[in-house]
Amino acid sequence: MIPQDARQYAPATERNREPILEVLLQVLPESGTILEIASGTGEHAVFFASRLRDCLWLPTDANPQSRASIIAWTEHNVCDNVYPPQHLDVREPVWVVENSSFDWLSKKPIVAIVNINMIHISPWSACLGLMAGAGRILKTGGILYLYGPFKQSGKLEAASNTAFDEYLRAENPEWGVRNLDDVVAVASAQNLTLKQIYQMPANNLSVVFQRSTAIR
Fold first, then answer.
1. Beta carbons of 124 and 151 less than 8 angstroms apart
2. Residues in Cβ contact with 79 at an 8 Å cutoff, skipping those fewer than 6 apart
3. Counted domains in the chain
4. Is the pLDDT of residue 187 over 60?
């Protein structure tokens, strides 16, 4: 058993979880498995799962400390609709949920993928991998939800986002606030169609894609 002191805290979670939930309640299917990519501390997982009781929440993260935190949070909050966290690196050509050990997902299929605050603090290859995986896993009508800061028409309107982008690129040249047009183009190549953009607090966006029928 992971001790409760393995729980990690992300201050931004308490600020953004309610606004994100408002959007999720509008765009997510009423039931099915929700795959969360880069779940981080696990605070979002237990908060959303406890309020989306007809959905099953499957958290993932590439960081073992984050997975330990997710376990600790689910033990602390006792969420019976949250699966154990899985290791998942979006850049891998086959995700863990595509393996035969996850055949049970055929009965409780993944109907949506949720990804919060990842693509600006990871290489561009992570965004490419996210879209490729979503295109493989989601069936027609499935939802991909992204949250975070974005450039719109190649520009950052808020000074705070400009400073944040500069900070990220100083930390790692492969990081940075992404141009939404580029993200939409990559998604489109994987048969993911932009459905809706929601303005969020602190100059963030909720960006919702829907899996369309592949054109052959």
1. no
2. 45, 46, 49, 50, 57
3. 1
4. yes
| 3-class secondary structure, 64 | helix
Distance of CA 108 to the CA centre of its chain: 19
* Tokens standing for residue 92: 């891998």
pTM of the entire structure? 0.95
* Cα distance between residue 15 and residue 172, in whole Å: 26
Other C-beta atoms lying within 10 Å of the C-beta of residue 167: 11
What pLDDT digit, counting tens, does each position of 147-185 carry?
999 999 999 989 999 999 999 999 999 999 999 999 999
Please return the burial class of 67, using the count of CB atoms within 10 Å of its CB with bins 0-12, 13-18 and 19+.
buried
Q: How far apart are CA 179 and CA 143, in angstroms?
A: 21
**59 inside domain:** yes
What sign has the CA pseudo-torsion 137, 143, 148, 152?
positive
Task: With a cut of 80, say whether residue 2 has pLDDT above it.
Answer: no
In a domain? residue 179:
yes
Looking at residue 122, the DSSP 8-state letter turns out to be S
CB contact at 8 A, 83 and 56: yes
Identify the domain containing residue 81 by its residue range: 4-119+126-211
Does any domain span residue 86? yes
> Cα 72 from chain centroid?
20
Q: Average pLDDT over the chain, rounded to whole? A: 95
Please report whether residue 216 resides in a domain. no
